Amino acid sequence: QQSDLNSFLWTIKRDPPSYFFGTIHVPYTRVWDFVPENSKKAFHQSHIVYFELDLTDPYTISALTSCQLLPQGKNLQDVLPHDIYRRLKQHLEYVKLMMPSWMTPDQQGKELYADYLFNAIAGNWERKRPVWVMLMVNSLTEVDIKSRGVPVLDLYLAQEAERLRKPTGAVEKVEEQCHPLNGLNFSQV
DSSP E strands: which ranges in 76-141? Predict the structure, then answer.
């Protein structure tokens, strides 16, 4: 029942009202049917929409990619214990081998070839900081691969806002997300 769902929607009572909506970074198709109507209505009634980050801005994507890299001249092999690095490399070889069987017919029909997709997700992995490699490995599962090409909820809402010609913005800068993660030490990662 829609009325029984927790919407993660907060309202600031002012004129006009403002809303806060808690989203998660998963393909929107996994959660869209569970987003209550009051949240969808608030989105459509809003004149301006702000997101955590502006995922439609090429600078944001470029800065996110750059912040994941180790300092110049360093590779993951230089900073990880040999055994962990070897196991990681073996796991990525396994994933690359399995990816064609994980892809949906629709993905294959869109020419989302397994090698292309693997390189899009794991390309340059040896230059990434351990925390970002950990997040990457967590997304290299059969379920996640099958949903590639479907935008996460935040991006879907940003694309909808653009389609509806709603002005958009971001409440955080890439650096505000990147620096705390890059500041984790190896034991925390």
Answer: none
Inter-residue contact 46 to 19 (CB < 8 Å): yes
For 11-31, the pLDDT digits (tens) are 889 998 899 888 778 889 888
**DSSP letter assigned to residue 15:** S
Q: What total number of domains does the chain contain?
A: 1
The 3-state DSSP class for residue 146 equals: helix
Residue 167 inside a domain? The answer is: no
Is 30 inside a domain boundary? no
Overall average pLDDT of the 117-141 stretch = 92
Residue 50: in which H helix or E strand, if any? strand 49-51
First-to-last alpha carbon distance for the chain, in angstroms, is 40
| Residue range of the domain that includes 135 | 70-147
**Residue whose structure tokens are 């995922």:** 55
Does any domain span residue 170?
A: no
Q: Per 3-state DSSP, what percentage of the chain is helix, strand, and coil (rounded to 5)?
A: 55, 10, 35
- Of how many residues is the chain composed? 189
User: Mean pLDDT across the stretch 83-99?
Assistant: 96
Residue 1 CA to residue 187 CA, distance in Å, equals 44
Residue 140 main-chain phi, psi, to 5 deg? -95, 60
Instruction: Examine residue 113 and state whether it is found in any structural domain, yes or no.
Output: yes
